Amino acid sequence: MSQETAHPVTLLNEIFSRAIVDVLGPEHEGVDPVIRPSKSPEFGDFQVNAAMSLGKRIGTPPRDLAEKLVESADLASIAETVDVAGPGFINIRLSETVLSDALDGMSGNGLGVTPVDDPHPVVIDLCGVNVAKQMHVGHLRSTIIGDSLARILERQGREVLRENHLGDWGLPIAMVLQTLREEEVDLEQLSLDQLDTAYRAAQAGSKGDDRGIAVVEERRIGPHRVAELEEQNAGAESRRAAAAETLVLLQQGDERLIQDWHRLIDCTMRAVYESLDLLNVEMDESNNRGESFYRNHLPEVVETFTANNLAVEDEGALVVRFEDRERPMLIQKSDGGFLYATTDLAAIRNRVVNENADRLIYVVDARQRDHFKDVFDAAKLAGWGTTTDGHEVEMRHIPFGSVLGPDKKPLKTRSGENVTLASLLEEAVARGRSEVLRRSEDERSPTHGMSADELASIGRAVGIGAVKYADLSSDLVRDYVFDMDRMIAFEGNTGPYLQYAHARICSILDKAGVEEEGFASKDLLLREPAERLLALQLLRYGEVVASASSNLEPHRICTYLYELSELFNGFYQQCPVRKAESEDLLLSRLRLCDLTRRVLSDGLDLLGIAAPSTM
RNA sequence: GCGGAUGUAGCUCAACUGGAUAGAGCAUCGGUCUACGAAACCGAAGGUUGCAGGUUCGAGUCCUGCCAUCCGCGCCA
Q1: Tens of pLDDT along A156-166?
Q2: In terms of Cα–Cα distance, which of A90, A12, A93 is closest to A48?
Q3: What are the b/e assignments for A534-551, b being 16+ CB within 10 Å?
Q4: CA–CA separation, A325 vs A47, rounded Å?
Q5: Superfamily for domain range A3-94
Q6: Could you say which residues 280-309 of protein chain A have a Cβ atom less than 7 A away from any atom in strand B?
Q7: How far apart are alpha carbons A433 and A453 in whole angstroms?
Q8: Which CATH number does the domain A490-615 belong to among 1.20.58.1000, 1.10.730.10, 3.30.1330.10, 3.40.50.720?
Q9: Can you give the pLDDT at residue A606?
Q10: Does residue A23 have a pLDDT over 90?
Q11: List of A residues 52-71 with CB within 7 A of strand B
Q12: Which chain B positions come under 7 Å from a protein C-beta?
């Protein structure tokens, strides 16, 4: 790549790194010049912030140092203006050619996204379906955040393994099987509703547990309450005993029970795949890596800990202790049974040792922070913090907040039950469709006269896109209030706003009637402020994807795309494309439109959001 | 009790990891179309960044102490 087609930030980094060494000496080799986009167009295109922190460290007034750097830096061929301002900011306005050449470079080069060269796969643990339980809003977040992170990493060329850590084994499943048998449900005709009922019956039956009594006793609540719970407990105990027997049979591979178990999974997963499909998330059976997958690995995992004195017995159970905290982690119960921590450890071992992954990402709600801290630390103690070829493994829990209702409490239905994912998506699709339909009734709308099928499909993309965008567009750890009216709005920082900008560009390009070859190699003219601002924003795309990837924060892409859409709309307002005053300007602006369209479409794809060409 | 997260305009959220006058969008008020798609654009108004200290040229961002809300804390997952 010649110097002329390099990215402006790359150019400025090189020039100012050299200037820093020239002015301050070779010991300042590799110091970051801190190049940033300018905060405001009045300051130019880019600012260099290094003079201030450096000046302080070496005892030179920052402004003087900034002057010296500017003197030493060879900017004549690329900059229009260079100024030192304020306490020591260096403001730079680049020449039109540097910008247009850089756009040329990004246009033919993956839109400026630089590939990451790492042969290790990345594992992303997402979705987390419980068999026999319908998906709810928590699964929504885990699934679409995880899917977006996967897309971002894949976009950089990394191999990503999406793993759905199914809750498909153990006592809870045995209890459901037991309940279904008692109620003589025909498993061949098993419906999701029946399964749901059985799950809740099983839960209710076993949950009048000891903990309830402990709490009641602790708080010195009346003895009648204790007696009540004890009575419940008696029933629960007998149910648990029955379930435990069922579990033993299941573990021994009882043929009929295994067959029932498969039916249970099929019934649950059919609905799961339907929702995933609607969400535009690509996952199928091959992504299932649940508890049953690891069930035979658990004794070995525990063995690794005991053999290395990493686990000790405590009140009959096996616990791992950590130096920096009181709280131990249980890996085996006093009755010999294993816990979810054990399964998570088995998964880490498999992902590192067998799949050779060097990055493990867990998209699980924020309440499990402590759990993952423990599991990661324990895995490192066991030696699974390094791949077999010696790379350090990065284990990251991506904690996300809860979805709240209008009352700011976790989202529930009016009757107090969890909102199912299916019902939520159904509402999103219905809202998207009605919005699209309503606007298509306007004779001047490009969607006017489209077939019902086409409108329905666009409406689906709008509704689902709205929900996904709302979920991904703010800092993940924060709770957010689910408000369909705000999400589906076409104004403001929403999915539909971005989709609209995209559709509008498609329409211009379509109506211009010029094929891509007609403008692909034409000169980009960036004379108008709006053209220049749009160009600068387009040039940031690669860096934004890189930052979303290293921080694992999809909302950075959302903010960027929103700003891009705003700048495009400003450009659209001020710069006629089809009615441009000359042929050269027409072609140049078509190129800007096309580049913007490609970045919008690529960015929305990283979020897993469809970009219809008409809406 | 211990540990963790969050707190920014009336509301919903940003702030490129310590940089210039803390930015957007809703909502409110006022301007732009016989439309390159007005589902858009431009403008006005709105702030002691929970509180109090500290670190330095410079703090929403780092440190200390409080306050409020939420979450977690050994044989559930």
Answers
A1: 999 999 999 99
A2: A90
A3: bbbbbbbbbbbbbebbee
A4: 45
A5: Arginyl tRNA synthetase N-terminal domain (3.30.1360.70)
A6: 291
A7: 11
A8: 1.10.730.10
A9: 98
A10: yes
A11: 52-53, 56, 62
A12: 2-7, 12-20, 24-27, 35-37, 39-42, 56-58, 70-77
List pLDDT tens digits, range A216-270.
Answer: 334 333 334 444 444 455 566 777 788 888 999 999 999 999 999 999 999 999 9
8 A C-beta contact, residue A147 and residue A281: yes
Q: Which nucleotide is nearest to A168 (CA to C1')?
A: B77
User: Which residues in chain A, range 489-518, keep a C-beta under 7 Å from any nucleic strand B atom?
Assistant: 489-493, 496-497, 500, 503-504, 506-508, 511
Rg (Cα) of chain A, in Å, rounded? 29
Distances (CA, A) of A548 to A118, A123, A554: 17, 17, 6
Tokens at A60, concatenated: 């030179």
DSSP bridge partners of A48 = A35, A90
Distance A528 CA to B32 C1' (A): 20
- Other CB atoms within a 10 A radius of the CB of residue A300 amount to 10
Average pLDDT over residues A346-375: 97
Domain range list for chain A = 3-94, 490-615
Write the ipTM: 0.96
CA distance A580 to A398: 48
- The type of residue at A310 is L
Say how many Å lie between the first and final Cα of chain A, rounded.
39
d(CA A160, CA A415): 40
Q: pLDDT tier at A3 (50, 70, 90 boundaries)?
A: very low
Q: Please give the C-alpha separations between residue A245 and each of A167, A171, A203, A241, in angstroms, as whole numbers.
A: 19, 10, 17, 6
pLDDT on residue A466: 96
Query: With contact defined as beta carbons under 8 Å apart, do A33 and A20 qualify?
Result: yes
